[in-house]
Amino acid sequence: MDKKTKKERKFFNKLHDKYRLVVMNDNTFEEKISFRLTRFNVFLFFGTLAIFLIVATIYIVAFTPLREYIPGYADFNTRQVLRELNLRADTIEAELIRKDLYILNLQNIISGREIVDVFPDTVPQSSEPVKELPKSKEDSILRKEIESESNYSYWVDTDSFKTYSDIYQFFFFPPVKGLVTNYFNPAENHFGVDIVADQKEAIKATLDGTVIFASWTIETGYTIGIQHPNNLISVYKHNSALLKHIGNYVKAGEVIAIIGESGYLSTGTHLHFELWYHGNPVNPLDYIVF
Q1: Angstrom distance (rounded) from CA 245 to CA 211
Q2: Quick one: which of 160, 110, 123 has its CA closest to 278?
Q3: How far apart are CA 260 and CA 120, in angstroms?
Q4: In a domain, 30, yes or no
Q5: Is residue 32 part of a domain?
Q6: Residue 124 resides in a domain
Q7: Verdict on whether the full-model pTM lies above 0.85
Q8: pLDDT digits 0-9 by tens, 104-142
Q9: Which domain holds residue 225?
């Protein structure tokens, strides 16, 4: 026990032994700086320095932007930016759905289908045949009154079906020169013709008119529609870019778009061109040479 106690005392005594650290001139051996040190003071200095470095590192990591450079450290600003981007993406998606629903209802009005409030999962490609309902006496009287007061002709009424001989008075400008690959077929809901042409080919307005639609839809991609005189509308679908906006007035032969293959109904670079006269589709090949 005595030896152990002596060793412990000897160790603690060494901690307090004083040493001198001298900095001397190597040539003249002149003493420049000297420090009186003990082992205990050295341990205390380096221990304090280590604690200071640890505290400084923790402060830098917790309260300065340098924490962003530490791998795996969560950045709350980045999370906030991601949340804002997600909100913007949801807003854009909702706006696209609203526009597509607007276009779908326009198509439903033209095709005689009912207007929907919610965008369906799948867009109907063909309309179901309308069942003939028995006509009442009051209904027949009302029909006669409306038909006698109106100049409209109905697509489904074969007795009052209107011929479109007056459409020949127009001089149509070909929207694009190319090869017709798909023809006018209302029975399959193909209300226009498909013309294949070179990539980057310019699409031109077929007549003078005002742009009433210029936007992007899921089915037909970049689409533009022009209202012409005498209730005539031309539609240009699957473009790669639109050069006119709603409300622009265009002249016949003026460039309005660039040919493309946008929209999931497109199977290649081509123009889908439609003509609508008094709300009914007509065959463009009867009036235009492509």
Answers
A1: 7
A2: 110
A3: 26
A4: yes
A5: yes
A6: no
A7: no
A8: 877 776 666 777 777 665 544 444 554 556 667 666 776
A9: 168-286
